Amino acid sequence: MVRRRVGGPVVAGGETLVAIRSADEVLIDLVRDVVAWWGAQVLVRPPGTPPPPAHVHVDSASERLPGDPSWGRGTSIAVSREPVAGAIVLPAGAEDLADAVALALSVGTARTVGVLGACGGLGTSVTAALLARCAADAGRSTALLDLAGGIDLLLSLEDEPGPRWADLPAAGGPYVGEQLVAALPTWQRVRVLTSDARGGADPRVRDQVAGALAGVVRLVVLDLGAAPGDLASAALCDDLVLLTSPEVRAVAAVRAEVGQLHGRVDGPRLHLVVRSVRGLDLPRGEVEEACGLPVRAVLPHTRGMAVDLARGVTPGDRRRAGLTRAVRGLVRELGLA
User: Fold this and answer.
1) Contacts by 185-189 with C-beta closer than 8 Å and gap 24+?
2) Which of 7, 130, 185, 256 has the lowest CB atom count within 10 Å?
3) Residues 6+ apart with CB under 8 A from 155
4) CA 6 to each of CA 36, 96, 105, 148: distance values in angstroms, whole numbers, following the listed order
5) What is the 3-state secondary structure (H, E, C) of 278-322?
6) For 202-223, how does the pLDDT look when each residue is reduced to its tens digit (9 = 90+)?
7) Could you tell me the sign of the dihedral formed by the alpha carbons of 212, 217, 223, 224, in that order?
8) How far is the C-alpha of 268 from the C-alpha of 234, rounded, in Å?
9) Residues 146, 104: Cα–Cα separation, whole Å
């Protein structure tokens, strides 16, 4: 019999989500029995798949292979029907699983937000950095992961000590969130992991690091660069900001991305943001109709940004600038402040 616990679950939209990665129907039913007290919806995914957004992630240790992507934004709960090192054995360990689920719900889950540009030249990295900075200014512990390259130069971090992606080999994991936070360069209270001339993120390391950081900070922002996007990286996100402009090519690119992501049960929540282009105006309603999403924010065209960046002025330094104010509003709109 599983002990009942005092206190309610962490809920999104009135529902607690528990994701289990397994093809073992008996194991899945045992997990369902344990989490039934919370009234949780159980999302079942086959072995080898990336994690969907959920409050708790449970993984079948006996079905896990070395090359599988990490499971969950923080530390997942390993279970099995047979003894496996580090796993809770069910059904005998049902109370241990209940305790682990209760702890995961009491701690809560970080938000992981990706920023994906419809094309180059829209300021995707600037937007991602501003989003992270504004959330940090609002009191949310934040990490920014550079998956596109170039953020070290954008934020003037190229000479700052601390690990880059190339310093984190796949064989070096699993990575510990607290140790990463302590070691990473800091920009305006945001912990930043960037690429450098040696290369970018190995997908296996990306998954491990994103999950480890999400266990210790309240927001992880991923700079995903320009479309066509990396759907594997997008799968790590709870929310995906799709940055477009009124230009036809940009709207078409976002429409293609939406077609691949929209409506997937395990996909991120999609948020359309439009970057204004000087001398080009497309009514907001037409952009929404073409992309199939409501516009969450309009970012103004910013004169002199290129000159500012060349002079070492980083995103958000001009706190009264229209772009900074617009992204600050987006942070509130997304519930990150």
Assistant:
1) 185/157, 185/160, 185/161, 187/129, 187/133, 187/144, 187/155, 187/157, 187/314, 188/133, 188/136, 188/137, 188/314, 188/316, 189/133, 189/136, 189/137, 189/142
2) 7
3) 129, 187, 192, 194, 314, 315
4) 15, 16, 12, 44
5) CCECCCHHHHHHHHCCCEEEEECCCCCHHHHHHCCCCCCCCCCCH
6) 888 898 898 888 878 989 999 9
7) positive
8) 7
9) 27
Q: How many helices (H) and strands (E) does the chain have?
A: 11, 13
Tally of CB atoms within 10 A around 10: 16
Query: Quick one: CA dihedral 188, 72, 111, 33, positive or negative?
Result: negative
What mean pLDDT comes out for the span 4-12? 32
List pLDDT tens digits, range 116-140. Answer: 998 888 899 999 999 999 999 999 9
Q: Classify domain 111-333 at the CATH topology level.
A: Rossmann fold (3.40.50)
Listed range (162-176, 209-223, 237-251, 312-326) with the worst mean pLDDT: 162-176
Task: Give domain limits for the chain.
Answer: 17-107, 111-333
CA distance 238 to 108: 14
For 165, the token pair is 């992606």
pLDDT at 43 over 50: yes
pTM score over 0.85: no
Q: What is the pLDDT of residue 35?
A: 92
% pLDDT > 70, the chain: 88
